[in-house]
Amino acid sequence: MAESLPEHDRILQEIESTDTACVGPTLRSVYDDQPNAHQKFMEKLDACIRNHDREIEKMCNFHHQGFVDAITELLKVRADAEKLKVQVTDTNRRLQDAGKEVIAQTEEIIRCRVQQRNITTVVEKLQLCLPVLEMYSKLKEQMSVKRYYSALKTMEQLENLYLPRVSQYRFCQIMMENLPKLREEIKEISMSDLKDFLESIRKHSDRIGETAMKQAQQQKTFSTALQKQNNVNYGRNMHLGRNRILESKNEITLKRTFEDEDEHEEEVLTAQDLVDFSPVYRCLHIYSVLGDGEIFENYYRKQRRKQARLVLQPQSSMHETVEGYRRYFSQIVGFFVVEDHILHVTQGLVTRTYTDELWNMALSKIIAVLRTHSSYCSDPDLVLELKNLIVVFADTLQGYGFPVNRLFDLLFEIRDQYNETLLKKWSGLFRDIFEADNYSPIPVANEEEYRIVISKFPFQDPELDKQSFPKKLPMSQSVPQIYMQVKEFIYASLKFSESLHRSSTEIDDMLRKSTNLLLTRTLSSCLQNLIKKPHIGLTELVQIIINTTHLEQACKYLEDFISNITNISQLTVHTARLYGLSTFKDARHAAEGEIYTKLNQKIDEFIQIADYDWTMSESDGRASGYLMDLINFLRSTFQVFTHLPHNNNDHAAMSGKVAQTACMSACQHLSMSLMQMLLDSELKQISMGAIQQFNLDVIQCELFASSEPVPGFQGDTLQLAFIDLRQLLDLFMVWDWSTYLADYGQATSKYLRVNPSTALTLLEKVHRGMKDSSKKNNIFAQFRKNDRDKQKLIETVVKQLRSLVNGMSQHT
Q: Which parts pass through the membrane (predicted)?
């Protein structure tokens, strides 16, 4: 109990000194103590309250008088407070009445201040918006005057600098939405301008190319004139006076060349003058600014490739006229001149790699087109003009940096074609010359006519020079004409070789090769065809042999002519030689063969009119008329051979050989034809009278052979052509069968050239003739026994001949 009382005092102290919010734990400790502690605490608490009440009462009693004094004072103040309130109220009323005007003015000032602030804000905002609006107005103006590149720059400034400052305004949002549309509009407009530009350069390509080719040609002409001027100055004469004259003349010439060149330069327009390139620059800049530069480059290159394919597509009739080729080349040159200009004035739109690739593609197509269309050209003048165009075309594009070696290689192919057209043209010229020729020696009445002939043809004959006028040259009119045409062909061939950038040696080689083709193919073919023509007789053939001899001799002059043109000596190792010698030799051989053939044909014509009576009992006692005509023809024919050239030993030997060969061939053919006539299978029987008549004809042939119709035969060489006939006829005329059969096979046999089969065939025909004759003459009884004996002899000889023939066949 004594312990609990101090504890309660402590709790009460804590309650008095502790904040009300923290009393809970203290009170809880009251209930956690011993039983009945609560009651004891309450008692202690009541005691404490009573103590405090007593203290309060003591204090109130101590301060009561002061409280009463204060109340009394307060009542006094109350009366004064009422007065003060009335005064304050009155003052307030008067103050309110006086402040109403001030309040009104103040409110007006406040409103003006707000307006001023708003105006300032508006001005500030307008100052931000005005540059935007000005730039937008500028953009619209640039769009209206088609300054699209500047418009894009303005848009860029609007987006990056101006619009972000006023992005909160609605008009700004509208502007932002319109800018992409304006960009697309600019792209479409610039692309439309580019398409117009592409169409424009497509239309003007031929004119641009024509202008560029003219400029290249003028530059080449000027360079050539300048080079000639330098050459003249280099080799000028050492005499001072003459030197000054030459210098003044050369200066005048060169000055005129410069003046002409300047005039041409003033007249000739450039690509920039003909085409406005601003659309492509503008479009390139626009797409570059928009970040679509690659798209534009791809589109431009794609469109230009399409145009290139169109330009490279030739017209089907291009090969008919030179204007077709010129237009084709002008369009191509114009196309690449534009590309070269774009390459040098823009960066990246086209590259050197792109132009080289495009040129290689175009070059392959050009070569294929020219190779095809040039093959249709049959006119050498057109081919030559085509070559000149190709050279100008190549020189022009080479000046712009494009490789053109393949074009010059193509020119060598076209040169072959040109030579072919020349060969065809000259083939017609040669034919016309041969058809117009009279194939007789050229008559010259005086020295002037003689000079005219030798000025055209290098003819030299000292023997003929000694003769007085009038006289005849051995060749016919076609010889100088052919020679002149060969020289004209060389000139024509040389024209193609000019401007091909080839050395004199190569040009010399080309001229000689083309001339060889003319001689060995064209002229040779014309000569061969001429020789084979039916209307060409023996006289004409003889004259052709004479002509080819002189043309052969003139070949060395043609070689000198080519050497003088090209300044290449014939002693050069690689210099080709003309093959005219073999050409004219072959023509002579063909003419000689044709002479032999025509002689044989003529002999056959005479043989065909032979009309033997194979059953005649006796001969007419004279040779047949057809044979005498044939012999007379042969005599007159062989006299023609005396006109063959024999002004030197070689020609004399040649003419004698031709005459001898022709004569021998004619005699052999005559002998063979007569033999075939006897042995003809359709001829069944022959009388002895017919044999006698035939023998008279053969005698005339032998007399002709022995009369030496052509000089130069040794002994009876020509008569040996009839030896087979002679021995066969002698065998039947003498009826010397015993000798024939006894000496058969011996080298000393009298009838060595008589073949058993030939003798058997003719004997059987004679036997049948005798049988037929016996039947007709059976009224003469005295002849029956002799006929029977002769027939028995014939039968015996026939058997022996058959045995010989069978023995020969078995041996074979």
A: none
Q: Measuring CA to CA, how many Å separate 328 from each of 206, 226, 253, 313, 392? A: 8, 31, 35, 9, 13
Tell me the domains of the chain and their CATH numbers.
Answer: 7-62 (no CATH), 169-223+273-402 (1.20.1310), 407-440+476-609 (1.10.357.30), 629-811 (1.20.58.670)
Q: Give pLDDT, residue 224.
A: 62
What burial letters (b/e) apply to 115-148, b meaning 16+ CB within 10 Å? eeeeeeeeeeeeeebeebeebbebbeebbeeebb
**CB distance 307 to 313 below 8 Å:** no
SS3 label, residue 275: coil
Share of the chain above pLDDT 90, in %: 8
Cα dist from 53 to 17, 39, 47, 48, 315, whole Å: 18, 21, 10, 9, 139
- pLDDT at position 259 is 46
The type of residue at 111 is R
- Provide the 3-class DSSP secondary structure of residue 168: coil
Average pLDDT over residues 300-304: 86
Which residues, including other chains, have CB under 8 Å from residue 710's CB and lie 6 or more apart?
Answer: 638, 641, 656, 659, 660, 662, 663
* pLDDT tens-digit map of 419-477: 888 888 899 999 999 999 988 888 888 888 888 888 888 888 888 878 888 888 888 89
From residue 721, alpha-carbon distances to 647, 657, 666 in Å are 31, 17, 9
Q: Rounded to the nearest 5°, which phi and psi values hold at 472?
A: -125, 135
Q: Which of 303, 278, 280 is nearest to 194 (CA)?
A: 280
**Element holding 442 (H helix, E strand):** strand 442-444
Q: What are phi and psi of 645, to 5 degrees?
A: -60, 130
> Which residue do the tokens 């063969």 mark?
593
Residue 227 to residues 224, 361, 392, 729: CA-CA distances in angstroms? Answer: 5, 36, 19, 88
**3-class DSSP state of 747:** coil
Tokens coding 226: 């300048």
142-161 confidence digits (pLDDT tens): 888 878 778 888 888 888 88
> Which of 189, 393, 356, 220 lies closest to 287, judged by CA?
189
Q: What is the arithmetic mean of pLDDT over 236-253? A: 37
pLDDT band of 119, cuts 50, 70, 90: very high
The C-alpha torsion from 362 through 368 and 370 to 376, rounded to 10°, is -150
| pLDDT exceeds cutoff 90 at 118 | yes
Tell me the sheet residues that pair with 43: none
DSSP per-residue codes, 395-428: HHHHHTT---HHHHHHHHHHHHHHHHHHHHHHHH
Q: Give the pair of three-digit tokens for residue 381.
A: 């003048």
